């Protein structure tokens, strides 16, 4: 899988075993976390997605399940604004800001910024998206469990690493980016955790989990992602997948909808064979298989 030798439908596509394919996202959530979201076991499972937008969608579904069994919930909103430009006076800066109201700035999303709206409940699992205090175990990608929610403070328990089970307090911090076409840097002040029941594939690197769900609303898009996703668990029984129909994934016969278990289901498996060959890691039979595929066509 990691070197392309497991690809069965052309040189960049992988057939998925029928026993790992599920028909919808709710079946995937049941596999990973149970129908009622087992809080004690949830830190050993994850749903992996190719994009951040897919993780937001899945995490929202799981949040709705969590809210069934709790009375307390809290919604936090960011403070998002444009930095003042030093070369402009106060009046000019204020006039420029009128063209970019807070509603517009809050709707902007980026991998380097937390979402404008953050809804949490006690018991929810979250992940830090910035380093806060490395010596105290609060690093980017550290997983936490929410214990208490206050207006300006979130109390959490660390779930991973050498500081596991320690109680910590999380405050708002400032994020900034200049990746948008705006007349100045965008600043967003917000809490740095986000729900982590679903995460992008790259965030799961280095973790060993009991159960993994692979949600392919869009195809995996870069070298090694398929291998990373499937290798988070120790056995094939622990991984399930939902594959939405598309030109680069789904049923081989191109029926519409989510692919069902037992169908001939494939997904894109990007493998840069040339790079592996250059460093002597690609098996010699890969080239032979490609030549055979060419002859067949």
UniProtKB/TrEMBL annotation:
InterPro entries per the UniProt record, alphabetical: P-loop_NTPase, Pif1-like_2B_dom
A family per Pfam: Pif1_2B_dom
Residues that span the membrane, as ranges: none
Keyword set, alphabetical order: ATP-binding, Helicase, Hydrolase, Nucleotide-binding
The UniProt record lists the keyword Transcription regulation: no
Entry protein name: ATP-dependent DNA helicase
GO molecular function: helicase activity
């Amino acid at each position: 899988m990691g070197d392309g030798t497991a690809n069965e439908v052309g040189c960049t596509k992988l057939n998925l075993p029928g026993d790992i394919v599920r028909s919808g996202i709710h079946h995937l959530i049941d596999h990973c976390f149970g129908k009622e979201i087992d809080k004690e076991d949830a830190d050993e499972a994850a749903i992996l997605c190719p994009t951040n937008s897919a993780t937001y969608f899945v995490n929202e579904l799981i949040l709705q399940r969590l809210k069934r069994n709790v009375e307390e919930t809290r919604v936090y909103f960011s403070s998002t604004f444009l930095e003042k430009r030093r070369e402009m006076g106060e009046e000019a800066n204020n006039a420029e800001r009128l063209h970019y109201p807070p509603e517009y700035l809050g709707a902007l999303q980026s991998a380097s910024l937390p979402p404008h709206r953050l809804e949490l409940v006690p018991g929810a699992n979250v992940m830090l998206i910035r380093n806060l205090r490395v010596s105290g175990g609060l690093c980017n990608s550290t997983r936490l469990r929410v214990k208490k929610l206050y207006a300006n403070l979130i109390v959490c328990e660390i779930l991973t690493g050498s500081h596991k089970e320690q109680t910590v307090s999380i405050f708002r911090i400032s994020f900034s980016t200049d990746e948008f076409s705006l007349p100045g840097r965008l600043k967003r002040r917000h809490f740095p955790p986000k729900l982590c029941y679903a995460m992008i594939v790259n965030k799961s690197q280095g973790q060993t989990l009991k159960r993994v769900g692979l949600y392919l609303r869009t195809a995996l898009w870069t070298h090694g992602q398929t291998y990373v996703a499937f290798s988070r668990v120790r056995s094939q029984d622990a991984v399930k997948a939902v594959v939405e129909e598309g030109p680069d994934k789904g049923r081989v016969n191109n029926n519409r909808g989510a692919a069902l278990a037992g169908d001939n289901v494939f997904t894109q498996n990007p493998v840069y064979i040339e790079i592996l060959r250059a460093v002597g890691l690609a098996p010699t039979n890969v080239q032979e298989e490609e030549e055979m595929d060419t002859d067949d066509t």
